[in-house]
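Thread: quick sanity check before group meeting

JM: Hey all, I'm pulling together slides for Thursday and realized we never actually wrote out the predicted structure for the chain we discussed last week. Dropping the sequence here so it's in one place. If anyone has concerns about the input, flag it before I start.
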Amino acid sequence: MTGRFPHLILFLAAFLAALALANAYHVKPGIAHHVKSIFVFGDSQFDAGNNKYIKHCGLQANYTPYGMSYFHTPTGRFTNGRTVADFISQYLGIKFQKPYQEVYRKLVHHSHHIRKTMPDNGLNFASAGSGLLPDTNNRQRVTSIQSQLLQFQALVKQNFIHRKQVVESIYFLASGSNDIFSYYLLHGELKLNETAYAHAMLKEASKFIDKIYKLGGRRIVAYGVGPMGCIPGRVLIKRAPKDHCYDKMDRMVKYYNAELQHLMISIPRRYPGAIGVYVVVYPTVQNFLTHPKLYGFLNVSQACCGAGPLNGELQCGLRGYKLCHNPNDYFFWDYFHPSERVYGLIAKGIWAGGKKQIWPMNVRTLASIKLPFH
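JM (edit): ok, ran it. Output follows.
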C-alpha cells in the first residue's frame, strides 16, 4: 500500500489541477459549447474513409455491407454505421469530419478556393490499420500516426487552418490496438518484451501530445484500448483460445492503459493551459461483454459479419462472408470492430458520463471550457 502512495499524490494533484483549470476558464456544462471543431487521429475505430483514397492500401472498408445501418452505403468506416467521433460531432451539433485525404485532393485541384473548402468543423486523419509505432502494418500502406501529424502540421503551418480554430478544437487520439494485436500475431519476429513494447508505444503517444500542444492544441482526449483479447479476430493468432478471451493479450492492454492514463494525468503539469482527458474504454466494454442482456446484446462473442470460427477468420464483405439478421443484437460487427450500437453507447459515456467512463471530465464539460486565445 505504501508503494502506491506517491502515485496517489500525483493523481490527486493532477485531478485538482484539472479542476482548477476548469474553474479558471468558466465551465458552464450544457449551457455553451466553445468547441465547434474536432481533429481526429488514429486507426480503424475512427477512420472516416481515409484509406479508400490511398493507392494500394491493403486495409479497406469501402464495400458492402459496411455502412448499411446508417449511411446505407459504404463510406470507408469499419462498422455498420457511425463511429464514436460521429456521435460526438452530433452531440456538439456539428457535421461529421471529412477524411483528410478527400479534402486534400480537393485542395490540390482547387487551390485558389482553398480558404472556402477547408472545413470549419475539423478533419479526420485516422487510418485503419495504423498504430502508434510507425512500423505497424506499414506494408499495408496505412498512414501512421506520425504521418497523420505531419499532414495536420502542414495545414497549420501554411495557415490553411486558422490558429483560432486550432486552439478551440478537441483532439482525439484513438490508437494502440493494432500495435498490441500485431505484437501477438507476429510473436517471435519482434525483439522487445511486452513491457518494453508498451513503453515504446507510450513514447510515441507522448510525442503526439507534445506536437499537438506545440501546434496550439489544448484539449486532448486519448481513447484507451479495449479488451483486444476478446475480439473474434483473435482466432487468427496461433494458440489463442476460441472459447474465451485471450488473457495474455489483455494483460498487456491493461498495463498499457494504466500507463496511458498516467500520461494524460500529467498533461496539466507538463503543458500549462492544456487539458488531458482519458477515455476509460476497457472496463466500459468489459461491462457490456459481462452483462450483455442489460445492454440488449444477444451475442457478444461472434461477429455479425464474417466467416470461420467466431466469424473471425474472414473480413466482412469479402467473398464467402456471412451476415447476421440484426447488427444491433451483436456487440461485434466484424472480426475487429464493434457495431454502431456499441459506438453509440461508448460515445454517450464519453459525452456525459462520470469518471468511471472518462477522466477527469466528460467531453460535454471539456467543450464548455472557454480557453484564452493567444
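AS: nice. Confidence is low (pLDDT under 50) at residues 1-31. The longest strand covers residues 38-42.
JM: adding both to the slides.
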